[in-house]
Amino acid sequence: MVQFIDIYDNEDEDELYLSDSNNVPDILDHEPYMNSSSSSTMPSSSTTVSPPPMYRSDYTAVSNATTAISTTSSSSPSSSSLSSTVEKSRETLMSEIEDTIEQMFASIAIGELCKLPMTSKPLPQRKRKRQSSADNNADSTPSMDDLSATSSNDSTRYLSLSSSLNRTRTLARYLSVLQMIYEAVAYKIMLTKRDMYYRNVELFGKQSVVDIIVDDISRHYNVPRSSLNVSAASKGLVFGPIIIKLKNNKILNCSASNDTADTDDEQGILIPPIHQVVQVQCKAKCMIVVEKEATFRYLVSIGFCQSLPESCVLVTGKGYPDLSTRQFVKYFSTHFTAKPILALMDGDPHGLDIYATYKWGTRAMAFDVFNLAVNSIELIGLTCQDRQEFQISPQCLIPLSERDRAKCQAMVQTYDQDETPGQSQLIERGWWQDVDTELASQSHQSYIREINQLLASDHKCEIQALNHNGPYHLTKYLIKKLAKYI
């Protein structure tokens, strides 16, 4: 049974892991994976499209007037070495969904069980359950070869009608989501994952089931979620000298005050889905991605952007970022290549993991890492070294909890003697072909070193601790940090 227990990169998942590590259900109840190369009476419904050698993004809605995307970078891997989705026309996608359903009926016509094939790049399966002995660990923990093989080989998952209620329900769930997607594409309407869940709460049971199925279908047809006409409610905010023009001709002035009709929030604009964006104009010299909304609002309220000689754009995903926020930061990195993107995170395990989410992607979206990972983003703080350099009071340091230490150890965990710390985690995020290059990069080595220093100190520290020495100490901290970049 395929286990979908490791695809969430958020605090809720970690809570589940620590509170119930011995009983994590397979919420989709899939049939076992089958190699795509193996013989089968059921052909796959679509052919996975390999990414072209040049840069190709999800953002086809962006006008030709915008800045051309750079195709190469000294710090970024080539597109041919990372997984990415491909935009498809409405007619092509509808035809492929029809082919999938036709295959089901074809199998029935020749007397076979009704089966729904799902071709995808399966996620690496890691044992979350802690073993009580070294022998059990050796038996259950996958090697690096296992992770690489799992990540790089296409597989076909078969969902079928059977005597098992769980498997039949899973098939019904996929068919229901496929139906909603087909209707949305056919009638040119947008759906949210929340809407899809509420259409049949009894069938889906919980929102996470719909989220996984949508990602599976996106992976299966090798298209970005926007091609499925499915979006998630925006939560990320942006503020600064940046103007966004949307398809409906609406202009979002991200530095406007809350008395203008264009502003969605009194301190920042809600980041729109990237497929709605036509053009972006930016006068700032850099972008600062802020982990927490509270820090973002503080910087906006004191006029931090306006106080800089060279202004900046502030972005927050309010913790772990949603897809729209990640796509917007990616858009910025490819259209404004000369402007640095800097990460301002708490000096704790979650802050480092959120930074890694922006920089290297997530396990859940590993099949589209090239279009989402922002490899150029740099961590400016809060680091363990900053605690001494900026004289953070010891009383502002918080002891690491058992959960914190477990998360740090998971972020650098190795599975065999030949593995470099962080290697398997990069592979799970989609870097199975460029893992050696990325491991050798200064940014990844600094990231691993920071995790180890955090563990050694046995304490974490939040950004707000900088203001313990004065209400504007955070501002002074940022100005000193930014001097290197602008």
Automatic annotation (TrEMBL):
Entry's localization field: Nucleus
Domain Topoisomerase 6 subunit A/Spo11 TOPRIM: from-to ranges: 287-482
Protein keywords: DNA-binding, Isomerase, Magnesium, Metal-binding, Nucleus, Topoisomerase
A GO-annotated cellular component: nuclear chromosome
Cofactors required: Mg(2+)
Start and end residues of each stretch annotated as Disordered: 18-91, 119-155
Domain Spo11/DNA topoisomerase VI subunit A N-terminal, first and last residues per copy: 169-230
Superkingdom to which the source organism belongs: Eukaryota
CDD domains according to UniProt: TOPRIM_TopoIIB_SPO (cd00223)
Coiled coil start-end: none
Top EC class of this enzyme: isomerase
GO BP, sorted A to Z: meiotic DNA double-strand break formation; meiotic DNA double-strand break processing; reciprocal meiotic recombination
Residues forming the catalytic site: Y198 (o-(5'-phospho-dna)-tyrosine intermediate)
EC number: 5.6.2.2
Record GO terms (molecular function): ATP binding; DNA binding; DNA topoisomerase type II (double strand cut, ATP-hydrolyzing) activity; metal ion binding
Biased composition (Polar residues): 133-143
InterPro entries recorded: Meiotic_Spo11, Spo11/TopoVI_A, Spo11/TopoVI_A_N, Spo11/TopoVI_A_sf, TOPRIM_Topo6A/Spo11, WH-like_DNA-bd_sf
Compositional bias segments (type: Low complexity): 36-49, 60-85
Catalytic reactions on record: ATP-dependent breakage, passage and rejoining of double-stranded DNA
Family: Belongs to the TOP6A family.
Descriptive protein name: DNA topoisomerase (ATP-hydrolyzing)
Organism in which the protein naturally occurs: Mucor lusitanicus CBS 277.49
